[in-house]
Design goal:
6-stranded mixed β-sheet, binds iron/sulfur cluster, 12 helices, two-stranded antiparallel ribbon, alpha/beta, binds zinc ion
Length: 314
C-alpha cells in the first residue's frame, strides 16, 4: 500500500483517519498531532515546569521524548521522575526499568530524579507482596500516586504528566460503565486541575493515542524501552477487567476506530455531564505522620499505614 501523502510504501494504516503513511509521514503526523492535541485540550495552559513520570516502558518513554522535543513550542520546562519500586522476584524488573528511564532522560537531556522506595521509604513492592495480604498492584498503585505527587511538588513542578494511552482509557471507561464506577469516571480526564489537597495538575498527553501507534513510533524512532512485563502483571486488575480488555481489542479488530470513538465521545459528552453531578468540594484531611493529603475520615494516609505495617514486621 502506498502512503496517502507521497509515493513511498506505507508502514502504518491509521484507520480512523482513513490514511496510510510512510515512515517519514507517520513520524511527522504523530509529532504534529501531539502538539496540536496538547494545545487544543489546553494541557499545559499556565504550566511552567512539568514533571514527566517515566517507567522505562514504551508509553512513558515516548511521552518523555515528545514533551522534550515540543517543550519550546509548548513553553514549558521538563523534569523527569522515575521510581525504583523494588520489584525483582528473580527478574531484575525494577533495576532494568530505572536504568532504561535514566538512559532516556540522558538522551533527551532532561534533569531527573530517581526515587528509591527501599532507601527513601524503607519498603519495596517485593516486601509488600510478602508482608501484606493486599495484591502487589494495589500497594504499587498507591505508592506510585503518593510518591509522584510528593516528588513533583519537591521538584517545584506545577504539572505531572503520565503515559496512559487510548487503550488504557477505553478499558477504564468500559469497565466503569459495566461496574457503575461513575464517580471515578467523572475524574478520568486528559487534564485534571490540582484538587483534594494536591498541588499539581495531572495531564495524560497520550489519552487519545492508540497503544499500537505508540509502540510503532517508539521502534521507528529507536528509543530504548523495556519490553519485559512486570512479574506481577498477571495480578493487574481482575479477571473480568482482563476480559473487558480482550473484548475491546476484538471490537477494535472488527471495527477499527471503536476505541477512539468511545474515548472521544466520553471526553466530549459523557465526562462533563458526570463531572457536573459528582464534582463537589471534598473535605481533605492531613496525614498525622507525613502531612500529605488524606480523606477526612483517616488520621494516617494509606501510604504511611502500609509503610508502618511493613516496618513493624521487620
Ligand atoms: Fe506495579 Fe502491578 Fe504495574 Fe507491576 S503490574 S508495576 S506491581 S501496578
Ligand atoms: Zn509519505
Ligand atoms: Zn502519610
Amino acid at each position: 500500500m502506498k502512503c496517502s501523502l507521497c509515493d513511498k510504501e506505507a508502514v502504518r494504516e491509521i484507520p480512523y483517519m482513513k490514511m496510510y503513511l510512510c515512515r517519514e509521514h507517520f513520524i511527522e503526523w504523530f509529532d504534529q498531532r501531539f502538539i496540536r492535541d496538547s494545545k487544543r485540550y489546553r494541557l499545559f495552559e499556565n504550566s511552567k515546569r512539568v514533571a514527566v513520570a517515566v517507567s522505562g516502558g514504551k508509553d512513558s518513554t515516548t511521552m518523555l521524548h515528545l514533551l522534550s522535543q515540543a517543550s519550546k513550542q509548548l513553553n514549558i520546562e521538563i523534569v523527569g521522575l522515575t521510581i525504583d519500586l523494588g520489584i525483582d522476584n528473580g527478574t531484575g524488573y525494577s533495576r532494568k526499568s530505572v536504568e532504561t528511564a535514566v538512559k532516556n532522560f540522558e538522551i533527551a537531556h532532561v534533569k531527573y530524579k530517581v526515587i528509591d522506595l527501599g532507601s527513601d521509604y524503607n519498603f519495596t513492592i517485593d516486601k509488600a507482596k510478602r508482608g501484606t495480604n493486599r495484591p502487589a498492584c494495589s500497594v504499587c498503585g498507591l505508592s506510585k500516586r503518593y510518591i509522584l505527587n510528593a516528588a513533583a511538588e519537591e521538584m517545584d513542578a506545577d504539572t505531572l504528566a503520565t503515559g496512559h494511552n487510548l487503550d488504557d482509557m477505553a478499558q477504564f471507561i468500559f469497565s466503569g460503565y459495566v461496574y457503575g464506577n461513575l464517580e471515578s469516571l467523572s475524574r478520568n480526564s486528559m487534564v485534571n486541575p490540582p484538587e483534594r489537597g494536591y498541588c499539581v495538575k495531572k495531564v495524560k498527553p497520550l489519552f487519545f493515542t492508540p497503544e499500537g501507534e505508540i509502540l510503532h513510533y517508539a521502534i521507528l524512532r529507536g528509543y530504548p524501552f523495556i519490553y519485559d512485563p512486570c512479574p506481577y502483571s498477571s495480578e493487574f486488575g481482575s479477571v473480568s477487567q482482563e476480559r473487558i480488555g480482550d473484548m475491546m481489542k476484538s471490537m477494535e479488530a472488527k471495527m477499527p476506530g471503536t476505541m477512539m470513538n468511545m474515548v472521544k465521545t466520553f471526553e466530549k459528552q459523557i465526562r462533563p455531564a458526570l463531572h457536573d453531578i459528582y464534582s463537589r468540594d471534598e473535605d481533605v484531611g492531613r496525614c498525622k505522620l507525613c502531612g500529605r493529603p488524606t480523606t477526612k475520615d483517616r488520621e494516617i494516609c494509606s501510604f504511611c499505614s502500609i509503610k508502618n505495617k511493613l516496618a513493624a514486621k521487620q
